[in-house]
Amino acid sequence: MVHTYSLVHDDLPAIDNDDFRRGQPTCHKAFDEATAILAGDALLTLAFEILAKEIDEPAVAVSLIGQLAEAAGPAGMIVGQMADLKAPLKKTPATEQDLRIIHTNKTAKMFRCAAACGAICGGADEGQFECLCEYGLKIGLGFQIADDILDVCASSEQLGKTAGK
């Protein structure tokens, strides 16, 4: 749900301006920009609503909501997206550190969130929690690197989206 929200917003003209996602017209192309913005907002808000209503243990619900807010908010995906938007404006090519900041915040922190939430729900101890969080970060970085390679090497038809974005 949160991933779909991020893709709906990412495809908007103000960000990546993509026309296709998974071989289908993007939300703003199938409907319009306002609908895409509201649909993305609704998906993110619904994720928080589900966590708040469906988790029986209040301390667990608060912890899960906190993990998601941190990963998807201004300390996570939002700052990564801003760095990604600003990267082409720089006069020098992106450095490895620039890419690590973008990928860690925009993608890897969401993978970390998934691992952290699983650890919380599974009753992991502190050591297990930290290991799973580190695992999530590394898997997320690996995923984003592979996705970037595909954007350069694969065709739009193979990707189901515009290549090179």
From TrEMBL:
**What cofactor does its activity depend on?**
Mg(2+)
> Which Pfam families does the entry link to?
polyprenyl_synt
Alphabetically sorted, this entry's keywords are:
Isoprene biosynthesis, Magnesium, Metal-binding, Transferase
Instruction: Enumerate the SUPFAM superfamilies for this protein.
Output: Terpenoid synthases
The Gene Ontology terms for molecular function here are: metal ion binding; prenyltransferase activity
GO BP term, pick one: isoprenoid biosynthetic process
Q: Which CDD domains match?
A: Trans_IPPS_HT (cd00685)
Name of the protein in its database record: Polyprenyl synthetase
